[in-house]
Design brief:
Elements lengths: L1 H8 L9 H52 L3 H21 L3 H6 L6 H27 L1 H4 L14 H25 L8 H34 L6 E9 L9 E11 L2 E8 L14 H7 L2 H4 L10 H16 L5 E5 L1 H11 L2 E2 L5 E2 L4 H12 L3 H20 L5 H13 L4 E4 L2 H7 L15 E10 L9 E11 L6 E11 L5 H4 L2 H4 L11 E8 L5 E7 L2 E2 L3 E5 L2 E10 L4 E9 L7 E6 L18 E3 L10
Parallel strand pairs: 1-4, 8-17, 9-18
Antiparallel strand pairs: 1-2, 2-3, 4-7, 5-6, 8-11, 9-10, 10-16, 11-15, 12-13, 12-16, 14-15
Helix pairs in contact: 2-3, 2-5, 3-5, 5-7, 5-8, 7-8, 12-13, 12-14, 12-15
Length: 616
């Protein structure tokens, strides 16, 4: 009966009653996972909010530290730096716990969380490894603490600051590298904007960090901390152009010994020699002749300033003996800006040299007043000595001098070479080096350099403009670049009869008085090819060759007063993959009697590159 009742009642198949029991743990597990995910999301969101608040506070501390440093308040700067480190460290801690790192593995917001953590970590690195070390020695590296007094600079603070500065430079580079490595693809807008902002801030600060680092690493040694140094200061005259800025008109020996700086011998000219006194590379000689190694005035017809400086140093030693530890090139535009910081200087002749009249007096008036070149050279030497003596006597604050040096370097009007390899390596990465232009995969670096062939001082009236561009015109993707140079002779129509023969050249090289003959050297990218030289579509003759692996074309342009001419040169790159283009240009005068503005090189216009005839 029992069995019959059981069959009659239709009992369930074996195991069916246990199914809900088996599903219940799975459902519970899913619920638990969801709850954990929600808790994790809440935890991460809460910590992200806190981290964001910490980073906002850190930004306020950055402004406070900068303001304190600029105001000369080191105690306030240190307090702000300490607070900055506290907030930055808190932000880094909030974004690096295990829950946050696990969140980085999620497919939706993982990239954003990783980017946020990297930004916070980079901020902490900048706070603890860059800002705090620099603030701790701010009094030592502050230019105001480096004031010249009676030709003496106290090097002890700079020497003591060097380890902290080196640490800061390393921390900055590491932070910049981490932020640059962030993958911004797919980031939400607030995180993407934060990354862009951080990269911009780092890029803006990089030159300043580099300048401070280079100052601490270079200045003590170059000012004789380890023993006496001797430098040649060569005054370049842009009224008679040379590739690096102008004919070398006078040379002054400056000595430095444990921070004590003094003026030594002066010489307006030495040489020439029958044979080169320095082993000039064969490629340079092929382009410019043996004059590079035989005439001081032609040592810098090559745009390679380190080569020109080594040559000039060898010439000095050949005639004067001794040791030359470096060469510093300046021009009257630099002297003009130094006078803006020192105030007027009265010369032995009774003339007063000011910031407003220096360029005209030194590059134009002197030739009307003195017909004897020896008298002109003596005037130049006295002007240079007067300005340098005022500087050495403390006539300008060190911060002003640093500003003039920086602006002059950016304008390509100050060049420095050191015979000490370690120092030269550091200089080689600055605007003061004056090496040949260096291209990258994304940028074609061209050069346009002027050498006067008139044999006078007519470049006071020479105007120039430069434009350049690049494009991909070939199926193989190689980049074509084009640079156009327009020269104009702004001399008065009667220049040939009203200007002295010393200024016009007097027809010495078969150039009619009043006309200007210029040799323009066009330099292409390393490993590239010269594709064409033309004037309005008409092919021009040129001296061609190579220098440092770069294709070179040298073109002569002769202009009567009021005349103008444009020369266009095309190059084909070999390593470039993008169409960025820059042009290094000889720092000439404006050609209209006005003084060039310091702080930037002459602007280069944008030039369209037609893919067709002449560009292949």
């Amino acid at each position: 009966m029992a069995t019959g009742l059981s069959q009659e009642g239709g009992s369930a198949p074996a195991g069916t009653a246990d199914a809900p029991r088996r599903r219940r743990p799975v459902v519970v597990a899913i619920i638990v996972v969801v709850l954990l995910l929600l808790l994790a999301a809440g935890w991460i969101g809460f910590r992200a909010y806190l981290a964001r608040q910490e980073l906002k506070a850190a930004l306020g501390d950055v402004d406070a530290a900068r303001s304190a440093v600029e105001s000369g308040k080191p105690a306030e700067a240190r307090a702000a730096a300490a607070d900055l480190s506290k907030h930055a460290r808190a932000a880094a801690d909030l974004t690096s716990d295990p829950v946050w790192r696990a969140g980085e593995l999620t497919p939706w917001l993982g990239g954003d969380l990783a980017a946020f953590r990297t930004l916070a970590g980079a901020t902490e690195m900048l706070a603890t490894q860059v800002v705090q070390p620099l603030v701790s020695v701010t009094g030592s590296i502050d230019p105001r603490a480096l004031r010249l007094s009676h030709g003496q600079v106290d090097l002890a603070p700079l020497i003591a600051a060097e380890p902290a500065v080196t640490k800061a430079a390393g921390g900055f580079t590491a932070a910049q590298r981490e932020v640059a490595a962030i993958d911004t693809h797919g980031l939400i807008d607030p995180i993407d904007r934060a990354v862009i902002r951080m990269r911009g801030m780092l890029d803006h600060a990089a030159p300043q960090v580099e300048a401070v680092t280079n100052t601490a690493r270079l200045l003590p040694g170059m000012l004789g901390a380890s023993g006496p140094r001797s430098y040649l200061v060569v005054a370049q005259n842009p009224a008679e152009l040379r590739a690096t800025g102008g004919l070398i008109g006078s040379v002054t020996l400056i000595t430095a010994d444990h921070g004590a700086i003094g003026l030594g011998a002066q010489s307006a000219s030495f040489g020439p020699w029958q044979e080169p006194v320095f082993p000039v590379p064969a490629a340079t000689t092929a382009l410019y002749g043996t004059v590079v190694g035989r005439y001081l005035q032609d040592a810098n017809v090559t745009p390679d300033f380190p080569l020109a400086a080594r040559t000039a140093a060898a010439m000095w030693v050949h005639d004067h003996g001794g040791v030359v530890d470096g060469v510093i090139a300046v021009d009257p535009v630099v002297l003009s800006n130094l006078l803006r910081t020192t105030g007027p200087v009265v010369l032995p002749t009774g003339d007063t040299l000011t910031a407003d009249n220096a360029v005209q007096v030194l590059l134009s008036d002197v030739y009307r007043r003195y017909s004897n070149p020896a008298d002109q050279d003596a005037f130049f030497a006295s002007a240079a000595a007067g300005v340098f003596t005022r500087v050495l006597d403390g006539g300008a604050s060190a911060s002003d001098l640093v500003g003039v040096l920086a602006a002059s370097g950016q304008s390509d009007r100050v060049r420095i070479w050191s015979s000490h390899p370690g120092e030269q390596t550091i200089l080689g990465g600055t605007t003061l080096a004056g090496g040949l232009p260096v291209s990258t995969s994304g940028n074609t670096a061209l050069g346009v350099y002027f050498n006067d062939a008139t044999g006078g001082k007519m470049d006071y009236y020479l105007g120039n403009s430069v434009a350049a561009g690049a494009a991909v015109c070939r199926a193989d993707g190689r980049v074509s670049s084009r640079v156009a140079v327009t020269l104009t002779n702004n001399a008065p129509a009667n220049a040939g009869s009203t200007l002295s023969s010393y200024v016009t050249g007097g027809g010495l090289f078969d150039v009619p008085p009043g006309s200007i003959l210029t040799r323009i050297a066009f330099y292409g990218p390393e490993g590239g090819l010269l594709a064409g030289v033309a004037d309005g579509g008409t092919k021009l003759p040129a001296v061609t060759g190579a220098d440092g692996g770069r294709p070179v074309a040298i073109v002569e342009v002769e202009l009567a007063p009021g005349a103008s001419k444009t020369v266009t040169v095309d190059f084909l790159g070999s390593k470039q993959t993008r169409t960025g283009v820059t042009v290094d240009v000889t720092p000439a005068l404006n050609g209209d009697g006005t003084t060039p503005i310091m702080g930037s090189s002459r602007p280069v216009g944008t030039l369209a590159v037609p893919c067709g005839a002449g560009v292949k």
